[in-house]
Amino acid sequence: MSKDGLQFTVGDHVVYPAHGVGQVQGIETQEVAGYSLEVYVITFDHEKMTLRVPTAKAKVSGLRSLAEGNVVSQALTTLKGRARVKRTMWSRRAQEYEAKINSGDLISIAEVVRDLHRAENQPEQSYSERQLYESALDRMAREVAAIERIDREAAIGILTKSLTKAVVSA
User: Fold this and answer.
1) Biological process GO annotation list (predicted)?
2) Which residues are bridge partners to 44 per DSSP?
3) Distance separating alpha carbons of residues 137 and 96, to the nearest angstrom
């Protein structure tokens, strides 16, 4: 058991704030500057990347288990809510959206998806809005997919259904 209370085993799906859902491939001990350091080896298939996170720093780095069921249902409820778009400059809003996506918090990510979602009858998004929306949707879908043990496309279907219900009821 690591000092911070986080304990993952090989095969566990985890969420790293800046990269989303990854899978623990191993726990290794590495020699760094004369010190022995235990690290989680996490792979992110969608980014073709491997990350090594010191087990002692896992919690402060934001590494966490997949969201619990109540958090997922809260996030889906968030998607059904009314979009809250601040009347600030786009660059400021974009920074806030980016920070929410990289927070690793499923509900914050759901807020970004909700706020940037466009229905068929709504005006076209700018390129940067679309990029942020796709990034948030992808991050959320990957976590829902890992929790529900379905593929990313099926997860996007679930999220889209929640978003379209929101538009119809609005």
Assistant:
1) rRNA transcription
2) 49
3) 16
**Angle at alpha carbon of residue 122, lines to 108 and 107, rounded to 5°:** 10
Residue 1's pLDDT is what? 39
Domains and CATH numbers, the chain: 13-65 (2.40.10.170), 69-169 (1.20.58.1290)
- Over residues 97-124, mean pLDDT: 91
Enter the tokens of residue 96. Answer: 């806030």
**Predicted local confidence at residue 62, as pLDDT:** 93
SS3 content of the chain, % helix, strand, coil (to 5): 50, 20, 30
Of the candidates 169, 145, 167, 148, the residue with the CA atom closest to the CA atom of residue 156: 145
